[in-house]
Structures are given as C-alpha cells and as structure tokens.
Amino acid sequence: METVSQNACFGGTQGVYTHKSDACGCDMTFGLFLPEDAQDGPVPVLWYLSGLTCTHENAMVKAGAQGWAAEQGIALVFPDTSPRGDDVANDDAYDLGQGAGFYVNATQEPWAPHFRMWDYLADELPALLGREFALDMDRQAITGHSMGGHGALTLAMSLPGRFRSVSAFSPICNPTGGDWGRKQFAAYLGADEAAWAAHDASLLMGERGFDGPVLVDTGTSDQFLELLRPETLAAAMAARRQEGTFRMQKGYDHSYFFISTFMEDHVTFHAEALYAE
Amino acid sequence: METVSQNACFGGTQGVYTHKSDACGCDMTFGLFLPEDAQDGPVPVLWYLSGLTCTHENAMVKAGAQGWAAEQGIALVFPDTSPRGDDVANDDAYDLGQGAGFYVNATQEPWAPHFRMWDYLADELPALLGREFALDMDRQAITGHSMGGHGALTLAMSLPGRFRSVSAFSPICNPTGGDWGRKQFAAYLGADEAAWAAHDASLLMGERGFDGPVLVDTGTSDQFLELLRPETLAAAMAARRQEGTFRMQKGYDHSYFFISTFMEDHVTFHAEALYAE
User: Fold this and answer.
1) Among candidates A204, A142, A219, A132, which has minimal Cα distance to A173?
2) What is the rounded average pLDDT of the residues B216-236?
3) Preceding amide of B160 cis, omega within 30
4) Averaged pLDDT of chain A
5) Residue A277 has pLDDT above 90, yes or no
6) Which residues 68-87 of A are in CB contact (within 8 Å) with B?
7) 3-state secondary structure (DSSP) of residue A227
8) Could you point out which of A43, A198, B109, B208 has its C-alpha 20 to 30 Å from the C-alpha of B61?
9) Listed residue (A89, A88, A69, A91) closest to A78, CA to CA
C-alpha cells in the first residue's frame, strides 16, 4: 500500500492510498478520513460508496462529511467505483465500464477479469483496512449515493451482521426494472435475469430486509427519479415493516448540494447505531 | 443576467449566474447562496474571494460554507477570479492571466482592457447583487483564500465602511515582497512599485488598518508559506494594535481540507459583526 496524500482535516487526517488489488487485478485507490480519536485506539467505520462517473475523490471533497465524522469520532472510507487502467475494459458510455462498476462481480466478457467490485468491497478492502489502520471492524456502517446507494443497500442486506446501519442518498432502488441497471446487469452478469435479483435493493428488501436501522433520502426534484425508482424501495420497506426512515426531500435534486445538506443527519444516524451497546 | 443553475442547498438555493460585465468587458459568472431567510426579506452578505486557478465554482462545492451560512441567515457570494474568454489576454503560467486576476485594475497591455477585477468587485457586482437579489448591502463582510485572502484584506481596508468584518484563509500577505505578487504587479500595474503598495495587505495594515474585527488563519504546514509571508501581516497587525485574531493552525496545509475545517469559525465570526447593532 502506498500513501498518495495526507491532509490535516477537522483535527484528523484525510488520506488517499493506492494498493494492488487481487480482486480487481489492478491498482485501486481509496480515500480514508481518520478522526483525531483514532490516535487513541480503533474507531468505528462508515463506508461511503459513490455514484456513476465518480472516483474515490468526489465525495471526499464535496460531501462535507469529515466535520460530522470528526465530531462523532468515526472514520470514513471512500472507495473507487470501479477498476481502472489501460488494461481494464471500458465503454464510451458514462454508465458502463470504468466509473460504473455497479458493485457487482462481472461474469461476462470483457468485464469479468477486473470488474469484481463486490469481492473488493466485501472482502479485500475491509481486510486491508483492518490490517493497516486503527479501525474497529466490528463496528461498521455503510452509506452511498445513487449507484453507491444501490451498492450500500445491497451489500448491507447481503452481508448480515457486517453493518450496524445502512443509509443512502438518492439510491438506485430497483435496477432490474430501470435503465440504470438493466443495461449494466446484462453486460456484467449476462442475459439470465435470475442472476440480477441479488443486486436489486427493492427485491432484497422484499426477501430479507436489513437487521438494523435504514435511512433513505431522495429529492423531490431529482432529475433521475424515473431511473432511481424510489417508490419500489418505499413500498418494499413498508411491506416488510423494516425498521427505518424513507424521506422525500422537497425541492432537492441529485447533486452534492443535496448530499451535503443531509450529511449531518446521516452521520448522526450511523453514530447512534455504531455506539449503541 | 442569466441563471446558469439553481440547486436546493441547506434549505436555501445555491445559484450560478452570468452577466455582461462593463468593468471587465466580458461575460462574468458568479455563485450566490441565498439562505431560506432571504424569502422573508434582505439578508446580510459574506463575500468569498478564491485563489489562483479557481473559478466561481471551487469554493462553492468544496469549502463547506453553505450550511453555516444557512444557520446564520447569511448569503454567500462566490465571484470569479479574473475575466475569461477567447478575447481576454492570458498566459501559460498558472499564476498570471485568466484565473489569476489578483483583484487589481490592470494598467498595462495586454491586460488593461479586461483585467479590472477591483472595479468589478468594488462597484459593478455589488450594484448588480443589490438590484437583483434580496440582499442587505448595508451589512457586508468579506473573506477569501490565498490570492482571495489578499483580495479580501485589500478591498476591506481600502473601502472603509463597506465591510463590517474581514477574514482570510492562508492569504498572500505581502505581495510586493514575494513571487506571488511581484511578478503579477509588474505585469498588471507596471514597473513603478509605487502603484503596488495600494494592493499589499501588510502595507495597508501598517498605513491604515481596518475599522472592525479581522480574523486570519494559516496552516503551519502550508506548502506556500514563503510566498504567503504571514509574518509580515502578523507584525503589521500587532504594531497597529488592530482589533483581530491571527492564528497559525498546526499541521494544516493550503488545501480546501484546511478551509472547510475552519469555515464554521469564519462564518460565525462574520455573523457576529453582521448582526451587531
């Protein structure tokens, strides 16, 4: 692992690190905010998964999360959204290939060799983080935006016991039913739609739900509502009687101005779960 | 004036607007955050002047100021750092020409026709803002970063009565004495150094000071300390017995991670002055 940069930030350190990933077969870069409290011992971890076109950097500089995490004594992890590099397959579209990993393990060519974001986030990166940093990996929570909200929800429901709480900003809620999902799942997972269901937050909510609190925020003026399909997740949460809060925020859109506005709520929500006995 | 974008943000609106500038002889773009309170009547204004290479956008997305401004009921203005466009002179260096206006009125060719940022910020843009938005132009304050800290300090001291308070993040403190200043003043203002003194915060502090509180923050790990010359301003403030606070913040560098960390302090500082009777 190599240190790319470290900046003092809200009493702690905002770092960027690169490492050789076995899961993805390429170098991967991630951001990690360590609050001052990490100098005294391991701190809880909140994962932030980003949306289409993003790298590890977007949320790190625009989401305004570090101040609230510092206040709560929580670390923040900002992974990349896909494998990267000249050897890695890509597509001209913004919503397929590099920057658009959709947090799955691809089984189809040309994606299969590198696009293994599920394994990277479920296994490889948490193991690395636990080894290298003062993080309490028994206290993890996860959030994300758009494609990253989809990733946060599907990882949380599929790895019971891993995360104490899950939240999402304007998540893709039902990718098997919309154009942010069907196109990518067909490319990465193949034509058999049976393989897609494991990566659909609304279907997973209907099947199993999440053993902990859930918080979802979406803007009523989000320009991508037809692709996000929030109504499917709201219905599934209610039908399951899932512990959680589903909010539509009046006038807000899909931007980081929306995310930063509600970041305090989300970090506070996760802190309550992470510090509960 | 044309609206480029408007995003809901912390209960208010983050807007971007373009207008034909007479001062600069080109189209100019600025960001304006209006808190929810502006729906009930004019609100005070805090100007934020950005540093080298920045546009109106950098601080708007990275400084984390809107949340604190919303809490205080204060508007934020994010002007550009120079004139822009194909007709506008430029230079290959990052620290001269477009993105590097240094907040002066150029008198030398090829800069003189467009590089009139002083007039733009002292006269034209405030007049436009007062006409078009619910802003109380009798209650203004100003801050900035690096080259923008220089701009904030020099405007505040040169326009007595205009601003109730002034602050700066890692400002260029003594441009007549360092390479962030001498090169640009020679280009924009000519070889006669007598014309430069009016744009040097440390010299202005020695001559006249500021009729209100001053807050300056600079990181001890700032990679540009030799160009910023904070010791000159600290000495001038102390020698004048200027009301104010000059802080060196341990371990922080020149980045927006530093700015966002101390933004709450600066907005709160300005709010106290803006709401004082």
Assistant:
1) A204
2) 97
3) no
4) 97
5) no
6) none
7) helix
8) A43
9) A69
Q: Is B7 on the interface with A (CB under 8 A)?
A: yes
Q: Annotated catalytic, B211?
A: no
Rounded CA-CA distance B63/B255 in Å is: 10
Q: Which fold has domain B2-275?
A: Rossmann fold (3.40.50)
Is A67 within 8 Å of chain B by CB?
Answer: yes
Taking CB atoms and an 8 Å cutoff, what residues of chain B touch A10? 260-261
Residues A41-91: tens digit of each pLDDT? 999 999 999 999 999 999 999 999 999 999 999 999 999 999 999 999 999
What's the Cα-to-Cα distance from B50 to each of A96, A229, A256, B82, rounded to whole Å? 35, 39, 20, 10
SS (H, E, C) B67-126: HHHHHHCCEEEEECCCCCCCCCCCCCCCCCECCECCCCECCCCCCCCCCEHHHHHHHHHH
ipTM confidence score: 0.88
H helices of chain B, where?
Answer: 57-62, 66-72, 117-119, 125-132, 147-158, 182-189, 201-207, 225-228, 230-240, 256-274
Residue B55 contacts residue B31 (beta carbons within 8 Å): no
pLDDT in tens, B3-19: 999 999 999 999 999 99
pLDDT at B277 over 90: no
Q: Where in chain B are the domains? A: 2-275
State the pTM of this model: 0.93
Which token pair is B234? 């600290």
Chain B CB within 8 Å of residue A62 CB: yes
C-alpha separations of B94 from A168, A207, B107, B117 in Å:
39, 56, 20, 17
| Closest to A258 measured CA to CA, from B124, B237, B8 | B8
